[in-house]
Specification:
Layout lengths: L4 H10 L6 H22 L30 H5 L5 E2 L2 E2 L7
Antiparallel strand pairs: 1-2
Length: about 100
């Protein structure tokens, strides 16, 4: 066994979980199985395998940056329900 019931109880206290005796027993077995699987994965030879974030090769999905003309202040404020000088005016939300 890779993890004991005492360790599971300790972790449940740290997580502030109130677990019954049956839940502790069940979690101990489940966590032991998970740790056994992780240990099995650790034995694999991963030499020469490049770490990936995706299952399939991906190219850069972003377009190149291009400088474009933006809105003027007047254009940006043209549909504003209420504007003051060169800013949007919004109602007070905190009293």
């Amino acid at each position: 066994m890779k993890i004991t019931r005492t360790e599971v109880e300790h972790v449940s206290r740290l997580a502030r979980l109130a677990l019954s005796a049956e839940e502790l027993d069940s979690l101990t077995g489940e966590m032991d199985a998970i740790l056994g699987y992780v240990e099995q994965l650790a034995t694999l030879d991963t030499e020469g395998i490049v770490p990936t974030a995706h299952a399939v090769p991906m190219e850069n999905a972003f377009r190149p940056d291009e400088v474009k003309v933006g809105f003027t202040a007047e254009q940006a404020l043209s549909n504003a329900p209420d504007a003051a000088e060169s800013a949007f005016r919004v109602g007070r939300i905190i009293e």
